[in-house]
Give the backbone structure.
Amino acid sequence: MALSTYVDDNCPKSIALIGNPNCGKTTLFNGLTGSRYKVANYPGCTVERREGSIALLGGSCARLFDLPGTYALIGSTLDEKIVTQFLRGEIPGCDKPDLIVAVVDATNLERNLFLVSELIDAGIPLVLAINMMDAAQQSGIKIYGELLSRALDVPVVQITARSKGGLPSLLAAIAKALADNTPSSKRFTWLPEDHPLRGTLTQSEGPLSKASRDDKIITTIASLRYAWIRSVVAKGTSQPSKAQSPSVSALDKILTSKIWGLPIMLGIFGLIFQAIFLWAQWPMEIISGTVETTSAWLTRLLPPGMLTSLITEGIIPGVGNVLIFVPQIAILFFCIGLLEDSGYLSRAAFLLDNFMRKVGLQGRAFIPLLSSFACAVPGILSTRSIPSRSDRLATIMIAPLMSCSARLPVYAVLIAAFIPKTFVWGFLSLQGLTLLGMYVLGVVGACGVAWLLKKLLLWKESSFYVMEMPPLRRPLIRVITRGVFDSVVSFLKNATTIILACSVIIWFLASYPKPQEGFVGNPVQASYAGQLGTAIEPAIKPLGFNWEIGIAILSSFPAREVFVTTLSTIYNISDDDDEHQGLIKTLQERNREGSFSTLTALSLMVFYVFACQCMSTLAVCKRETGSWGWTLGMFGYMTALAYIASLVTYQGGKLFIQ
Amino acid sequence: MKTQIIETKEEKALSAVKVGQKAIISAIKSCPSELLQKLVSMGIVAGSEVTVTQRGFFGSPINIHLFGSVLSLRSAEAAHIHVQPL
């Protein structure tokens, strides 16, 4: 098979995959590398990028780097700077690429070729992959590869990445270009021989130069480039003789309409939260049943002792209770993937820009914020596409307020235990609505914080929005499931490393020292964890939390989902009987006994909405802002907000009940 | 509502162009450098033909069709772009 691939870090050649956003670059990367790729962060390198390897004819191979989508090389966004640095070979751990595969959208050649002309000036050998040929043919655009190839002096391959069309010819062209190793002779062809700029531009590093340029030079260069591109496109393509006047599809009109746009958007997000609860129920029950049976079976099988206690009271409930949430996380990532791949997310940004501007953000911040519902780490990374620094900082600071998938286990367990399974108006599940409420609370808090930030700290800086609206299209399930798979794997990796370690530590702290003889009460209270929990109890009592919850909160500062682990370990150790039931049942029992009220559960959920309990978020914040001030500020304001909001919920709720 | 009939086809800001109207970009004026760089890399240069396809609440954002794709801008950003209606 021509497309068979394997991972090999020792491949001698490196290839950069570059193109505009929405040109199908990542789909092509997936198609070329198959499952042989990794998402990597090199030490000392701020770039997270996808790297894969491709097999070439003749047995050699090459490393393929999927770089961020960009419109130009010298721009203001971080993504653009990363691409430029990569091409200069300035990123530690990455050599200067031997070859560029430039991906362009066949239906939008003029604009896409702007970046290509800059890449040609960089003097690195280049293969041009013209993507979306199916769409181009549909709209009557003809592309003469041979003529275009001659005009640009680079190999040209026509492909349709979504259906994997043309990939073998692309691989052949890549192998040939690597062997030839000759850059295009059309460097700076767009610049007339006698132009005054010629000297300065060609002698420096060309488009990779760091020199800042004044506005007049920017427009002059752009006009000359586009003039050359127009002549190239005129030679190498034929556009439909009757240019259709651009129209907006009926579906697009409805989705972005002033009347229906917002209700439809709310409906879509409401549906997602319903789905997370209703569809995930069945697989979750299977997993939780398996965990319980395994634990009971091991208790019977193994001789009583320390090791058995570690396994049945520490590890299995600790890791098992987090594994239960894999179905919900998969559904969440699937839904976000669906919205992103279909192009709906940009419509949502369009609808929300006015509102986002009022709170000091911009419509484009919507996409990082939405990703933060899955996890704040990719969310914060994707703020790189926001060009203005102040918008970017504000977005980073509020991204962790979006309820991420690690909070989902906390909400899910508390909602399942305390919120009745009733339906509002016969079809809206009260549990789903409560979950939606937690998400909304985070969003409202985020708006307030963003507004304050812009008013108090970032008011001097300007902001702008301008973005591309990709066409609406049928989402590709293959691409989405791959994303879901990646996220589930990284969640499982987390569960088997950090959470496993935490569950062992917590089991130890909650089991030792053993209570002295004659001790009456819960054995956990005498342990190290119990002592710590009792020590902080006065501080958290006004929030409705007891010492057991105190331990769970403290232990979940490195990662939120540890909350579930801790609580189940504590309850399992304190139960005398060997029947280890699921955490939800234990909580319901405690609710009946009166030691864990529904109001406490609500207050606890509110605490988790706002609290910054995630090491990875703080680490990525430090890396992206480059400042300890912003990082500590994030931790400080979120913890304070969590305490206050939780206090208001509990004390307010008590008044309300009385 | 004031009705503006464009008979003179005078140059005006893109932010003032109605939905469905075609225009040729004539210049980008008094625009911050960062934004200018972004706009030109997305194809907004003198000579490009644009069509306004949609506008949001209160006229912003404003979506324009340019080459083969649709760009979305705030009306404040579109105000820097001067066009000649067709």
Remarks:
- Residues 249 and 337 of chain A are 22 Å apart (CA to CA).
- Residues 1-7, 41-47 of chain A have pLDDT under 50 and may be disordered.
